[in-house]
Amino acid sequence: MTTLYAILELSHRATQEDIKGAYRRLAKMYHPDTNPNASSEKVSHFQRIQQAYQILYNPEQRFLYDQQEEEKRLKYQSKFDPLGDLFAHMNRKFSNTPSESSKEEAQVFSYSLKITFSEACLGTQKTLTIEGEKLDITIPPGVTHKSTLEFSLKEKSQGKVLVILYVDAHPHLIRVDHNIHLTLPITFMESVAGSRIEIPTLEGPFMLKVPPYIASGTELVLKGRGIAGKTPGDFHIRILITPPKEQSEELEDILKKFEKSNPYNPRSF
């Protein structure tokens, strides 16, 4: 079955901008207004393009659609995976403790779990209910969006659960491998005088000391405050000196007077 991503000629990793750009490009090709002599097939295809765009461009609807597609994929794999059938047969054949339950096919359940950005980076504990059975699971640090973890059910000796993780985006933090990045806007005054600014980190708020006379683009690094691992990641803060949103003649006059009495050239070329 054709997916909504395929209709828009995109991969499942497409960004919101990719989705918007694809829709605009395809709309020019298939929209009835620009193709008055279009065949009924093209008109129908344009309607499918519209439906795909409406679902994928809406974050909540896209999340639900991705969940459904992942569950379909896992069900298909559990039914038509010849290697899985082979290994299951070998496990039954060479088991040291044969039983009546070993004659039954292993049950595979899929479970979609939404977790926060911090939970994905730091790891967390969750309790799931699968077929009436409570299952305590440990999510290790550093899991990624749409990664799958496998757990065994205790009450169902051959049952297992494939947990698909959906990680919420963070409004300010970005993950790159085991490192976390934050762009920190500061005022002119904060950049010159230095300041202590509360910033969000994986563990919660942290008071960052910004040194005086810091330049825009400077990167401050909190060692070991990224994602845990054999080599723990770091927390990178990129300074962005940001002018006021509103224009101010008073500020301009102050800066002009300062520059006149304290001229300097920050460029070396």
Structure, described:
The protein is α+β, with helices and mostly antiparallel strands and 269 residues long. The chain has three domains: 4-57, Orthogonal Bundle (Helix Hairpins); 62-94 and 103-167, Urease metallochaperone UreE, N-terminal domain (HSP40/DNAj peptide-binding domain), CATH 2.60.260.20; 173-245, HSP40/DNAj peptide-binding domain (Sandwich), CATH 2.60.260. It contains eight helices and eleven strands.
List the helices and strands and how they pair.
Layout: H1 4-7, H2 16-30, H3 40-56, H4 59-80, H5 82-93, E1 108-115, H6 117-122, E2 124-130, E3 133-139, E4 148-152, E5 160-167, E6 173-176, E7 179-186, H7 188-193, E8 195-201, E9 204-210, E10 219-222, E11 235-241, H8 249-261
Parallel strand pairs: 1-5, 7-11
Antiparallel strand pairs: 2-3, 4-5, 6-7, 8-9, 10-11
Structural class: alpha+beta
| CATH architecture assignment of the largest domain | Sandwich
Principal-axis shape:
flat
Strand order of the largest sheet: 6-7-11-10
- As a percent range, the share of strand residues is 25-35%
Q: Report the helical percentage.
A: 25-40%
Rg: 27 Å
Please write the CATH class name of the largest domain. Mainly Beta
Q: Number of DSSP strands? A: 11
Can you summarize the main beta sheet?
4 strands, mixed
Terminal-residue CA separation:
59 Å
Q: Report the uncertain regions.
A: 81-103
Order of helices and strands: HHHHHEHEEEEEEHEEEEH
For the record, what is the CATH homologous superfamily label of the largest domain? Answer: Urease metallochaperone UreE, N-terminal domain
Quickly count the helices: 8
Mean residue pLDDT: 83
CATH fold-level label of the largest domain: HSP40/DNAj peptide-binding domain
Number of domains: 3
